[in-house]
Amino acid sequence: MSDFPTPATDRPEHCENALLTVDLSALRQNWRLLADFSNGAECSGMLKANAYGLGLEPVMRALLAEGCRTFFVATAAEGERARAVSETAAIYVLEGLPPDCGELIARARLIPVLGSLEEIAEWAPSGLDAAVQLDTGMNRMGLPLEQTLGAASAIRPRLVMSHFVTSQTPNDPLNERQIAALAAARAAFPGIPASLCNSSGIFLPHKPLLELTRPGYALFGGNPTPRGPNPMKPVVRLRARILATRDIAAGETVGYDATWTATRPTKLATVGVGYADGVPVGASTAPGKPPAEALVGGRRCPLVGRVSMDFIVLDVTEAPPGAARRGEWVELLGDEIGVDELATRSRTIGYEILTRLGPRYARRYV
């Protein structure tokens, strides 16, 4: 009934209602492609948010095996997990130096990304490695450009970096302004490597690759060129089991608040995932948007009604004979339905789809 090997769990497969498969081979191929596009710049790996929801430790081990040696995490706690995987990797902490966390960061040999003169003043006396983040337009984190000289007089960082605002829009003039701003500001740090490119930045025609690139979303199969074909391989496959089926007449409704009404005799399949598992409420049926879909026996079938905590309901009237039975698997994410498509049909972004993949899934790494 299923082509999944037994998941890595104490429960037998027939007791699992959803299986999330992470293709580490595809992940490694994606990193290699991004490294090739980095054109001589070092290509790092982004591990924040538990490696975009896919598991920091297995993802980091796979990237290390492919040759990645520099990683970025969001928090010091993530940095400790990463350090437990590798004694020698360079691990940068994007949230910088939280108050009273200097000892922890030093003990784990993490590299804080400093974004204020206060942080620099606190860390500089340690003499330990740090990065300096400059704000070239994001207005979120980073040192205002007018403070660059003050920072340079206090610390000699290991890396100078900034972050693109609109790299998914190649022709946006803000990209050029940020590239120029970082080029001018890094003059205060002669001989220090610099980094600007996220996943989409690597594919900009400007080629602002500098010495280090920092891909994240594209590593995990997201499209870094959303106005064109996706050059990345899908990494995530999500299947869930049909728990029940029923036939309803035209005029009957489905789910909370009766948001969907059948216009014909309809066969329904209830599937054992919901918003507690990371299926967005935005995937619910709504006027004026294409429905989210799942593959049932290879046929696309629309989600109907509202996503609830533990369930979604599919209209499987057009599914192949025998494919929509209790116990059969449907595919929500995979080669045909990627994270970007599910995100678009859920009125969100693929980053949210990945990072909210729920803990109830049985997870397999292949």
UniProtKB/TrEMBL annotation:
Top EC group: isomerase
GO annotation terms (biological process): D-alanine biosynthetic process
Binding positions for substrate per the UniProt entry: 140, 309
Family: Belongs to the alanine racemase family.
EC number: 5.1.1.1
Cofactor dependency: pyridoxal 5'-phosphate
Keywords, sorted A to Z: Isomerase, Pyridoxal phosphate
Known catalytic reactions: L-alanine = D-alanine
Coiled coil: none
Active-site positions on this chain: 48 (proton acceptor), 256 (proton acceptor)
Pathway: Amino-acid biosynthesis; D-alanine biosynthesis; D-alanine from L-alanine: step 1/1
Gene of this entry: alr
Keyword Metal-binding: no
InterPro entries documented for this protein: Ala_racemase (IPR000821), Ala_racemase/Decarboxylase_C (IPR009006), Ala_racemase_C (IPR011079), Ala_racemase_N (IPR001608), PLP-binding_barrel (IPR029066)
Record PTM N6-(pyridoxal phosphate)lysine, positions in chain: 48
Species of provenance: Methylocystis heyeri
Any one GO molecular-function label of the UniProt entry: alanine racemase activity
Protein's recorded name: Alanine racemase
Stated role: Catalyzes the interconversion of L-alanine and D-alanine. May also act on other amino acids.
Gene Ontology CC: one annotated term: cytosol
Pfam family of the protein (one): Ala_racemase_N
Domain Alanine racemase C-terminal: 235-366
Domain of life: Bacteria
